[in-house]
Amino acid sequence: MKIVRTPFLILLLLASISCQPKNKSGKQEVAQKEESDTHLETKLTSEQLQEYETAYFASGCFWCVEAIFESVKGVKEVYSGYSGGSEKNPTYEQVSYGRTHHAEAVEVYYDPDVISFMQLVQVFFGSHDPTTLNRQGPDRGTQYRSIAFYKNDKEKKIIQDYIDKLEAENVYGNRPIVTEVEPFEKFYKAEEYHQDYEKRNPNNSYIQNVSIPRLNRFKKNFKSYLKEDVH
């Protein structure tokens, strides 16, 4: 069972960079424009996606989390969105400013014949710091909290057993794991310009200074989990 002890997210030089929009026009309009200029691989259809299993996680800005899971072998598609709250049809502006109980989350479609739910849980814990309450990297607020969602008792046990193992092996020292283990209820897909955001906006300052370094740390520690075309 793979456990990574490397510390995550050195923050001292990143205090001024955040996934949260600084204003209504700046980041969102740039994202929409760059999206239209970039050609990405074709998404799977809804019918094709039905052939795979789904898993749901929240661990900070969904731009980062989506890119990490997309690099994992057996993962067929990842969507950024919102989950963990009760509000219906939340928007990015509502969630990112903490006006809902939702967290930025991802929906992962995966082939269980290639990668297991247990391995996805390892990816989840190995790609963020689960000891920081309502914070991940430079992003602060309950919308960036750590959540591992489960769809049945088997998944719940897998998550909880892995947390127990991490704590028993003192992976994070004296820092307790604050990840919420919650039943999955509803996932709301985020606005289209958030999908594949890292690929569409490689020169964005947040992507350059937070998302790409986070992805590279993950790739360094989980080489055997990566797709063949991921370097």
UniProtKB/TrEMBL annotation:
PANTHER family: PEPTIDE METHIONINE SULFOXIDE REDUCTASE, PEPTIDE METHIONINE SULFOXIDE REDUCTASE MSRA 2. SUPFAM superfamilies: Peptide methionine sulfoxide reductase. The keyword Oxidoreductase applies. Residues 54-206 form the Peptide methionine sulphoxide reductase MsrA domain. Keywords: Oxidoreductase. This is Peptide methionine sulfoxide reductase MsrA. The gene is msrA. Has an important function as a repair enzyme for proteins that have been inactivated by oxidation. Catalyzes the reversible oxidation-reduction of methionine sulfoxide in proteins to methionine. Belongs to the MsrA Met sulfoxide reductase family. It catalyses: L-methionyl-[protein] + [thioredoxin]-disulfide + H2O = L-methionyl-(S)-S-oxide-[protein] + [thioredoxin]-dithiol; [thioredoxin]-disulfide + L-methionine + H2O = L-methionine (S)-S-oxide + [thioredoxin]-dithiol. Its EC number is 1.8.4.11. It is an enzyme of class 1 (oxidoreductase). The active site is at residue 61. Gene3D superfamilies: Peptide methionine sulphoxide reductase MsrA. It holds the Pfam family PMSR. It comes from Allomuricauda ruestringensis (strain DSM 13258 / CIP 107369 / LMG 19739 / B1). HAMAP family: MsrA.
